[in-house]
């Protein structure tokens, strides 16, 4: 990429310090956008060194109203407008099964996961709303395979990502015709999501042993694999007719087979055929 599909749009993006959000920030700047890059981690500050005055970092906790107000204010004070809000920050429950969670920790874990994964995008949209209506802008929320399927997380993460799907649909309805609202649903990306402190978790690898072979496409796509979808949904020019849509990019997980993950994947015990080389 490296075009002008986001020509000077002002974008507020949460969860920008690492993983998918950091990669999308780079892609947005390459497409001509100016980005307020928000994260609870101070690692977000290095984006200003990388991208100069095209990126304004904001260190804030987006599960709190004040953090979202600070992000919206940074965009309005610096550039006077907001065209897109991207709610991407999230934490995981490390795929912990309900029966493995002590009952007295469940409430705390629930509030942590839903605070970042569900409340934060609501707060972010609310904080940016007047500016988004004024610019006839759009919202992009990061969902997940877990927005539509079981087994992509524990019950807290899966319920939270299903809720993100609900937000996309409800907000697309409520904000039409002024603001488009869409989402991206990755399957597996090579990142380390933070866990909940209520369950004593630090971070968890998103890619587990055996994950690659379980995917119909047989490869873990890089974090940059989602850049184009976020860019498409943020672009007035290229997604003017899209709202209420969750775009799935799950390496085929939704069409996985029973005997083998993909029709041309060798059956277990017959792996004489090489797994295809990664796509360039
Ligand atoms: N990695 C995967 O396999 C995968 C799959 C499906 C969906 N997703 C989704 O992709 C999105 C990005 O996750 P990622 O995989 O790049 O993980 P990541 O941990 O690399 O990125 C998430 C970022 O959000 C930030 N964050 C967490 N809590 C925050 C808070 N309260 N306030 C501000 N920032 C906060 C983190 O510091 C981190 O920089 C998430 O919504 C995640 O649910 C990831």
What does this structure look like?
- With 280 residues, the chain is of the alpha/beta class.
- It has one domain: Rossmann fold, CATH 3.40.50.
- 35% of the residues lie in helices and 15% in strands.
- It contains 7 helices and 9 strands, in the order βαβαβαβαβαβββααβ.
- The chain has a 7-stranded parallel β-sheet, with helices on both faces.
- The mean pLDDT is 95.
- This is 2,3-dihydroxy-2,3-dihydrophenylpropionate.
- It comes from Rhodococcus rhodnii LMG 5362.
Topology:
Layout: E1 10-14, H1 19-30, E2 34-39, H2 46-51, E3 55-59, H3 65-79, E4 84-87, H4 103-135, E5 138-142, H5 155-175, E6 180-186, E7 192-194, E8 203-205, H6 211-214, H7 227-234, E9 246-249
Parallel strand pairs: 1-2, 1-4, 2-3, 4-5, 5-6, 6-9
Antiparallel strand pairs: 7-8
Helix pairs in contact: 1-7, 3-4, 4-5
The low-confidence runs, each spanning 5 or more residues with pLDDT under 50, are none
Q: Find the count of extended strands (DSSP E, 2+ residues).
A: 9
Assess the beta-strand content as a share of residues.
Answer: 15-25%
Whole-number total of structural domains? 1
CATH topology: Rossmann fold
Rg computed from alpha carbons, rounded to a whole number of angstroms: 19 Å
Query: How much helix, percentage-wise, in residues?
Result: 25-40%
Can you count the helices?
Answer: 7
Examine the secondary-structure arrangement and name the CATH architecture.
Answer: 3-Layer(aba) Sandwich
Briefly note the structural class of the backbone.
alpha/beta
Q: What best-fitting shape do the alpha-carbon axes yield? A: globular
Describe the biggest sheet? Answer: 7 strands, parallel
CATH superfamily: NAD(P)-binding Rossmann-like Domain
Average of the residue pLDDT scores: 95
Small molecules bound: nicotinamide-adenine-dinucleotide
Strand order, sheet with most strands = 3-2-1-4-5-6-9
- N-to-C SSE string, H for helix and E for strand: EHEHEHEHEHEEEHHE
């Amino acid at each position: 990429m490296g075009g002008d599909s986001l020509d000077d749009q002002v974008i507020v993006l949460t969860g920008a310090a690492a993983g998918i959000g950091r990669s999308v920030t780079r892609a947005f700047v390459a497409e001509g956008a100016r980005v307020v890059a928000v994260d609870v981690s101070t690692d977000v500050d290095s984006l200003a060194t990388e991208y100069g005055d095209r990126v304004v970092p904001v260190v804030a906790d987006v599960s709190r109203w004040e953090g979202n107000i600070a992000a919206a204010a940074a965009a309005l004070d610096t550039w006077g407008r907001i065209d897109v809000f991207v709610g991407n920050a999230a934490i995981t429950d490390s795929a912990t099964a309900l029966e493995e969670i002590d009952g007295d920790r469940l409430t705390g874990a629930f509030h942590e996961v839903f605070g970042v994964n569900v409340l934060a995008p609501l707060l972010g949209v609310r904080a940016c709303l007047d500016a988004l209506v004024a610019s006839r802008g759009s919202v992009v929320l990061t969902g997940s395979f877990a927005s539509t399927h079981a087994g992509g997380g524990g019950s807290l993460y899966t319920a939270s990502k299903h809720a993100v799907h609900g937000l996309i649909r409800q907000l697309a309805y409520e904000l039409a015709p002024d603001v488009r609202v869409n989402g991206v649903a990755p399957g597996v990306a090579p990142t380390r999501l933070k866990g909940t402190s209520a369950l004593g978790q630090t971070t968890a690898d998103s890619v587990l042993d055996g994950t690659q072979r379980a995917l119909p496409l047989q490869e873990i796509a890089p974090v940059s694999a989602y850049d184009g979808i976020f860019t498409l949904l943020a672009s007035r020019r290229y997604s003017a007719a899209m709202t209420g849509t969750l775009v799935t990019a799950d390496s085929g997980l939704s069409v996985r087979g029973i005997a083998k993950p993909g029709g041309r994947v060798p059956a277990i015990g017959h792996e004489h055929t090489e797994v295809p080389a990664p796509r360039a």
